[in-house]
Amino acid sequence: MKLLSRRTNVIIATILVIVIGAIAYYYNNNKITELPPMTVQEKKARFISLIVPAVDHVYEDLMAQYQAVKSVIDSGESNDEIEQLKIEYKADTNKKLLMALKPHPKSIAIAQAAMESSWATSRFFLEANNIFGVWSFNEDEPRIAANKKRGDKTIWVREYDSIEDSVYDYYRTLARGRAFVEFRQKTMETNDPHVLVKKLDRYSEKGKVYGKELTAIIKYNNFDEYDDYDHESESDEVK
Question: pTM for this structure?
Answer without folding.
Answer: 0.82
